[in-house]
Design brief:
Elements lengths: L2 E10 L16 E2 L2 E2 H12 L1 E8 L3 H11 L4 E4 L6 H10 L8 E6 L7 H14 L3 E7 L8 E4 L7 E5 L6 H4 L3 E10 H7 L16 H8 L4 E5 L12 H21 L3 E2 L6 E2 L4 E2 L4 E2 L3 E4 L3 E2 L4 E2 L3 E4 L2 E2 L4 E2 L2 E4 L2 E2 L4 E2 L3 E3 L3 E3 L4 E13 L4 E13 L10 E3 L9 E3 L4 E2 L4 E3 L2 E3 L4 E2 L4 E2 L8 E2 L11 H5 L4 H18 L17
Parallel strand pairs: 1-4, 1-6, 4-5, 7-11, 12-15, 13-16, 14-17, 15-18, 16-19, 17-20, 18-21, 19-22, 20-23, 21-24, 22-25, 23-26, 24-27, 25-27, 26-27, 27-28, 28-30, 29-32, 30-33, 31-34, 32-35, 34-36
Antiparallel strand pairs: 2-3, 6-10, 7-10, 8-9
This protein binds uridine-diphosphate-N-acetylglucosamine (UD1) and calcium ion.
């Protein structure tokens, strides 16, 4: 139910310079979705009367994500006055003057925060009746964060927050940091924001300075330390991004393990937030389950497999495979060393085997492409077998063409199907066939030239070579064998009896 007394402000206007990236910091991914999307999802669950996101740097790219996830949210553009304080000041202008509830401010770069912690903050703020309540954490390495300065150790209230860059040596020794998540009463916040100045190391309006202003006005600011410090990890650079990603991945994997999924090696297995996995699935080491991949009961995936937005049927096995936007049927087998490009659909109990690449290929129930092949822009019926080393030649240099293979077809090794071409139900093709014409159902396609053997060619052109010596030895032996057929019975001939 909507909390009519709550407004949420999400700060997403910063440049994120420490990422050193063309991509805005908040659009870097964590568990398969942008950093800011985690924050937006949490805000959405809190269901506030107003949700306001502040943007500036790369605003269009951020606004796309924000409006997609929070269609009812408000977007505010920050002007060129820098700082979190300025961002909140401008967001407040978007809040109707009649609103007299509480304002929850969240940094957009704190994606690990969960709804439970935030609801706890809202409840604590309303219970204590302090003018502001903020989340803190105790960190082993607090560097970079703002530090919580308390009047005295036994005093529960905060005096001020000092940013790392403005802090003295002794202040920097304080392990309690400001998490960047605050509850404020709307009236006081509105009054104090215009008093912020740019007089600090970064020349920015710090939201954190509101704490000192409140205290000077005689108000209480209380602090709620979080249960575990990783909850409030802020992401400023790529090292922090990978730390947060590892932590989130560990939580996601644990969740699936408790839901009945076997994960052999959590350290080398990565599962995106949107993936969905049924019980009794086994994930082997080095496996990445990305995007909205869905894996059904009993499937075994890995080792060393990446699935992006794929669907894997019950009981299928997918080994050392890279697949994207593909469907693998129940009981089917894929890999090792297979590459499934978008729109590959493998039917139930089918096989895409070793060193096989597929693209836009629908392979019917029980059909097999076992070895060393490329299947592109093709449809294969049910129960067919494609010989080893077969190429579906789909591209004539200008356009891509389709190959149609029927059901119960057996094609020979090393075929080329020159698209567009159709091979009828129950047809065969000989090894080495280049299929340029349609093959009617039930026929055998052969187009290879008769083989000619130029006898003595090696002796004439490679005289004295190892090949020549081997050939001569074999020919001599064959001649001797022919002379003395009574030396050996047919059963004793061959390797057992070299005939020397
Ligand atoms: C901020 C806090 C710091 C706290 C830390 C927690 C301030 C001054 N400092 O520092 O006390 O320990 O978060 O993670 O608030 N942003 C804007 N507009 C701006 C600048 C930033 O919207 O002009 C947004 C950013 O996009 C980001 C968030 O505010 O999502 C925090 O900004 P950032 O520069 O990362 O602040 P920190 O230095 O981490
Ligand atoms: Ca930050």
């Amino acid at each position: 139910m909507t909390d009519s007394r709550l407004a949420i402000i999400i700060l997403a206007a910063g440049q994120g310079t420490r990422m050193k990236s063309e991509t805005p910091k908040l659009l870097h991914h964590l568990a398969g979705i942008p950093i800011v999307s985690h924050v937006l999802a949490t805000a959405r669950e809190l269901d506030a009367a107003y949700t306001i996101a502040v943007v500036r740097h790369e605003r269009d790219r951020l606004v796309d994500v924000i409006t997609d996830q929070l269609p009812d949210g408000l977007v505010v553009d920050q002007d060129d006055v820098p700082g979190t304080g300025r961002a909140v000041e401008q967001a407040m202008d978007a809040l109707p003057l009649g609103f007299d509830g509480d304002v929850l401010v969240m940094n957009g770069d704190t994606p690990m925060l969960d709804v439970q912690t935030l609801s706890g903050l809202v409840a604590e703020h309303r219970r204590s009746k302090a003018s502001a309540t903020l989340l803190s954490a105790y960190l082993d390495d607090p560097s970079g964060y703002g530090r919580i300065i308390r009047h005295s150790v036994d005093e529960p209230s905060v005096d001020r927050i000092v940013e790392h860059r403005d802090a003295t040596e002794s202040e920097r020794a304080i392990a309690e940091i400001n998490a960047g998540v605050y509850m404020f009463g709307v009236a006081e916040l509105r009054d104090l924001l215009p008093q912020l100045t740019l007089h600090n190391a970064q020349g920015e309006k710090y939201l954190t300075d509101v704490v000192e202003l409140l205290r000077r006005a005689g108000s209480e600011v209380s602090v709620l330390p979080v249960a575990e410090s990783w909850l409030v990890a802020g992401i400023n650079d790529r090292a922090q991004l990978s730390e947060a990603a590892a932590k989130m991945n560990a939580l996601i994997i644990r969740g699936w393990q408790l839901a009945g999924v076997t994960v052999h090696d959590p350290a080398t297995t990565w599962i995106d937030l949107k993936a969905s996995i049924e019980p009794d699935v086994t994930l082997l080491p080095g496996t990445q389950i990305r995007g909205a991949t869905v894996i059904a009961r009993g499937a075994v995936v890995g080792p060393d497999t990446t699935l992006v937005d794929c669907e894997v049927g019950a009981g299928a096995t997918v080994k050392r495979t890279d697949a994207e936007l593909s469907v693998i049927g129940a009981g089917a087998s894929v890999g090792p060393f297979a590459y499934l490009r978008p729109n590959t659909v493998l039917g139930a109990n089918g096989k895409i085997g070793t060193f096989v690449e597929t693209k836009n290929a629908q392979i019917g129930e029980g059909s097999k492409v076992p070895h060393l092949s490329y299947v592109g822009d093709a449809h294969i019926g049910a129960g067919s077998n494609i010989g080893a080393a077969t190429i579906f030649a789909n591209y004539n240099g200008v356009v891509k063409n389709h190959t149609e293979v029927g059901s119960e077809v057996r094609t020979g090794s090393h075929n080329v199907f020159v698209a567009p071409v159709t091979i009828g139900d129950g047809a065969y093709s000989a090894a080495g066939t280049v299929v340029r014409k349609n093959v009617p159902p039930g026929s055998l396609a052969v187009n290879i030239a008769p083989q000619r053997n130029l006898e003595g060619w090696v002796a004439a052109h490679r005289e004295g070579s190892a090949a020549d010596r081997a050939a001569k030895a074999a020919l001599t032996k064959a001649a001797l064998d022919e002379q003395g057929p009574d030396n050996s019975t047919p059963a004793a001939s061959g390797a057992e009896n070299p005939g020397e």
